[in-house]
């Protein structure tokens, strides 16, 4: 698992280059949002259960067939598994948020997800919708706490959405 700083340095070291203006600008950008990242993570952590519950309710309102007989979240066990997965995505998105690097999402969430979802016959579309809902709820909570929102906050969720949307699961 890497953060924005170690990823940047690794890339420059691999090519034997000194940090140039672009690298310095990337570092400045990362550090300028550092406090906001940590504060946003604290807001997420203290509201995680509520965020997951609200996201689940919103998802099942938008895609009610998921909880109807035969749906992928039908039965208590499947419903709980869906909420567990949403919590999983939220937790790892928070790690990536603090790190300022999506490496943790690639390593710990996205690798192997295709096989898991295929083996369980789980469609990815509702997952992508749920992650989008989480993104919006997190932005609302962070803004309500008086913290800045923006790209730094959306990046982990957008990365998950983009990568899952590009996979044919």
TrEMBL record:
Record-linked InterPro entries: Allophycocyanin_b, Globin-like_sf, Phycobilisome_asu/bsu, Phycobilisome_asu/bsu_sf
Residue sites binding (2R,3E)-phycocyanobilin per the record: 77, 82
Any GO BP annotation: photosynthesis
The keyword Membrane appears for this protein: yes
Cellular component aspect of the GO annotation: phycobilisome; plasma membrane-derived thylakoid membrane
CDD domains in UniProt: APC_beta
Subcellular location(s) of the protein: Cellular thylakoid membrane; Membrane
Bilayer disposition of the protein: Peripheral membrane protein
Entry keyword set: Antenna complex, Bile pigment, Chromophore, Electron transport, Membrane, Methylation, Photosynthesis, Phycobilisome, Thylakoid, Transport
Record SUPFAM superfamilies: Globin-like (SSF46458)
PANTHER family: ALLOPHYCOCYANIN BETA CHAIN, PHYCOBILISOME 32.1 KDA LINKER POLYPEPTIDE, PHYCOCYANIN-ASSOCIATED, ROD 2-RELATED
Family stated for the protein in its record: Belongs to the phycobiliprotein family.
Protein name: Allophycocyanin subunit beta-18
Species annotation: Planktothrix tepida PCC 9214
Gene: apcF
């Amino acid at each position: 698992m890497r953060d924005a700083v170690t990823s940047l340095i690794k890339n420059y070291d691999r090519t034997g280059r000194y940090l140039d203006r672009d690298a310095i600008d990337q570092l400045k950008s990362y550090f300028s949002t550092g406090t906001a990242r940590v504060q946003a993570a604290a807001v997420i952590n203290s509201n995680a259960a509520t965020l997951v519950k609200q996201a689940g309710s919103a998802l099942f309102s938008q895609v009610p067939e998921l909880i109807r007989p035969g749906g992928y979240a039908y039965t208590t066990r499947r419903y709980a598994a869906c909420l567990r997965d949403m919590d999983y995505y939220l937790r790892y998105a928070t790690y990536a948020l603090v790190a300022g690097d999506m490496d943790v999402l690639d390593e710990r969430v996205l690798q192997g997800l295709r096989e898991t979802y295929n083996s369980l016959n789980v469609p990815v579309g509702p997952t992508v919708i749920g992650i989008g809902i989480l993104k919006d709820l997190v932005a609302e909570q962070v803004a309500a706490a008086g913290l800045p929102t923006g790209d730094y906050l959306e990046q982990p969720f957008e990365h998950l959405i983009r990568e899952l949307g590009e996979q044919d699961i």
